[in-house]
């Protein structure tokens, strides 16, 4: 079984073949830290977290880097609005980022480089591009000359000439930057200092870096000149990743990344969920209403390249799905004296999981295998509580449970053993059921059959079937 990936650069699904066998260098464009993260950011972080975990599970050593963009107009604007500094805004939202990601079970990256910590590397790169004729200074700024780079447009499939035609050669005369550029598609590598804004010394005078150059510099510093996998949201393909390629490849003469992978957007009513559009729900607000693992299930239930439309119904369905998994995952704790995933696993099920996921990270296909195991364990758990017996042997069930726990862990879907007594799938706990059965017995004794039937119906509508046994004993099972 080979892992194949859809490479945005070649528009094809290709076998994965890292530069150094057994080892993967992976870079993800991270967050611009000027606000709380929303569900769109959660999707990006969760998807690439799971890709990283999966590669590790296949046996690769993975070095995973994600940056923070902590120099940016949006951060500056917020700082001005709040009468504080850019550093303090960035610090606050970096802290919030780590809190949110911990709740979602996203593993920390191996390093989190920041623009403010990478200034030397950025300046070196700009200088190199200038030396090689790809960059020109203009009145305190430095611009990248896109038409000097042969491969410009190869990632996004956009031709510079088409872009030019689209822009109809018009130059916005009231935009001071536009007047400094030799070509409208040139972009800033370095921006001369503006009054009252943070700035750093450089050979071009005081100023600050552009957005695209920081990623080129951080990739190089953290992972080298050519990396295996570069990832980010599909909104970054153009211009951000196109510009990263132009910068890095012009400087080194080598490919920046062997595989470019992009996740689809979280949308709301067809539009990208975005801070700027104001149509977002923060991870914090979301986690007030839904369980973190339900959010993960929502994200992993769609193929990573497809858009997800955010709705409450979608999250409710993902919650139900998660509860099925949770019931399966709790089997070992409830019935197998709480051992966890260290035991043997079933090769056939593992094979099916890998076969699904190896096809361009089809996590939804992998999840389907997990649901199947979880449903069987849930059913056998019910058998065990109500008849004391199971259909399969307990040894087989232990192997299935280990398989489920191991593979769900690869997707970062885990239960907290302390939470196992929470209400199960239908939201009704064992003790609530027992209480209703008691009430029903009392009603029956009083010959209030209407009430006793009502209770039976109520439980039935919540997925609980009652079985009246001889001697007035009532047992129950969870159906479904
Ligand atoms: N709606 C979304 N769905 C999926 N990924 C997203 C979404 N919005 C942003 N991302 C991804 O999150 C990462 C961080 O993005 P960044 O901080 O630049 O957000 P942004 O695009 O400025 O957000 P916004 O558009 O909300 O202002 C990027 O990889 C980006 O592609
Ligand atoms: Zn980037």
Automatic annotation (TrEMBL):
It is found in: Cytoplasm. GO terms for cellular component: cytosol. InterPro entries: Cys-tRNA-ligase, Cys-tRNA-synt_Ia_DALR, Cys-tRNA/MSH_ligase, CysS_C, Rossmann-like_a/b/a_fold, tRNA-synt_1_cat_dom, tRNAsynth_Ia_anticodon-bd. It catalyses: tRNA(Cys) + L-cysteine + ATP = L-cysteinyl-tRNA(Cys) + AMP + diphosphate. SMART domains: DALR_2. A motif ('HIGH' region) lies at residues 31-41. It comes from the Bacteria. Residues 352-422 form the Cysteinyl-tRNA synthetase class Ia DALR domain. Binds 1 zinc ion per subunit. One of its GO terms (biological process) is cysteinyl-tRNA aminoacylation. Its cofactor is Zn(2+). Keywords: Aminoacyl-tRNA synthetase, ATP-binding, Cytoplasm, Ligase, Metal-binding, Nucleotide-binding, Protein biosynthesis, Zinc. ATP binds at residue 275. GO terms for molecular function: ATP binding; cysteine-tRNA ligase activity; zinc ion binding. It holds the Pfam family tRNA-synt_1e. A motif ('KMSKS' region) lies at residues 272-276. Zn(2+) binds at residues 29, 215, 240, 244. Its EC number is 6.1.1.16. CDD domains: CysRS_core. It is an enzyme of class 6 (ligase). Belongs to the class-I aminoacyl-tRNA synthetase family. Monomer. This is Cysteine--tRNA ligase. It comes from Pannus brasiliensis CCIBt3594. The gene is cysS.
């Amino acid at each position: 079984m080979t892992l194949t990936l859809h490479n945005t650069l070649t528009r094809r699904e290709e076998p994965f073949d890292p530069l150094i066998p057994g080892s993967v260098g992976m870079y993800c464009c991270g967050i611009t830290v000027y606000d709380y993260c929303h569900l769109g950011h959660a999707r990006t972080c969760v998807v690439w977290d799971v890709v990283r975990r999966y590669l590790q599970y296949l046996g690769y050593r993975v070095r995973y880097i994600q940056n923070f963009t902590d120099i940016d107009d949006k951060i500056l604007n917020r700082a001005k609005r709040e009468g504080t500094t850019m550093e303090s805004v960035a610090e606050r939202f970096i802290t919030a980022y780590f809190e949110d990601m911990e709740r979602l079970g996203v593993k920390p990256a191996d390093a989190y480089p920041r623009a403010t910590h990478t200034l030397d590397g950025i300046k070196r790169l700009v200088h190199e591009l200038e030396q090689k004729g790809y960059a020109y200074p203009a009145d305190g700024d430095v611009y990248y000359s896109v038409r000097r780079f042969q491969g410009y447009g190869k990632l996004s499939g956009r031709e510079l000439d088409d872009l030019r035609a689209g822009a109809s050669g018009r130059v916005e005369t009231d935009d001071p930057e536009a007047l400094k550029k030799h070509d409208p598609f040139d972009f800033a590598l370095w921006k001369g200092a503006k009054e009252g804004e943070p700035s750093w010394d450089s050979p071009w005078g005081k100023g600050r870096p552009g957005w695209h150059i920081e990623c080129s510099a951080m990739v190089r510093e953290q992972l080298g000149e050519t990396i295996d996998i570069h990832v980010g949201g599909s909104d970054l393909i153009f211009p951000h990743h196109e510009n990263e390629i132009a910068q890095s490849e012009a400087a080194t003469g080598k490919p920046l990344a062997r595989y470019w992978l992009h996740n689809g957007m979280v949308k709301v009513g067809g539009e990208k969920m975005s801070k700027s559009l104001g149509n977002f729900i923060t991870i914090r607000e979301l986690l007030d209403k839904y369980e973190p693992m339900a959010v993960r299930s929502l994200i992993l239930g769609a193929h990573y390249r497809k858009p997800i439309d955010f709705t409450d119904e979608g999250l409710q369905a993902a919650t139900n799905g998660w509860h099925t998994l949770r019931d399966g995952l709790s089997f070992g704790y409830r019935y197998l004296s709480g051992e966890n995933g260290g035991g043997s696993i079933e090769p056939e099920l593992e094979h099916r999981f890998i076969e699904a996921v190896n096809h361009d990270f089809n996590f939804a296909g992998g999840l389907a295998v997990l649901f199947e195991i979880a449903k069987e364990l849930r059913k056998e758990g019910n058998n065990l509580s109500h008849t004391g017996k199971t259909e399969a042997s307990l040894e087989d069930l232990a192997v299935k449970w280990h398989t489920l726990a191991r593979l769900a862990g690869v997707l970062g879907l885990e239960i907290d053993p302390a939470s196992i007594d929470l209400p199960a799938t239908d939201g009704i706990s064992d003790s609530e059921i027992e209480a209703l059965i008691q009430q029903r017995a009392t009603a029956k004794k009083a010959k209030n059959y209407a009430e006793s039937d009502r209770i039976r119906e109520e439980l039935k509508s919540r997925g609980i079937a009652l079985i009246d046994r001889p001697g007035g004993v009532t047992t129950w099972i969870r159906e479904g």
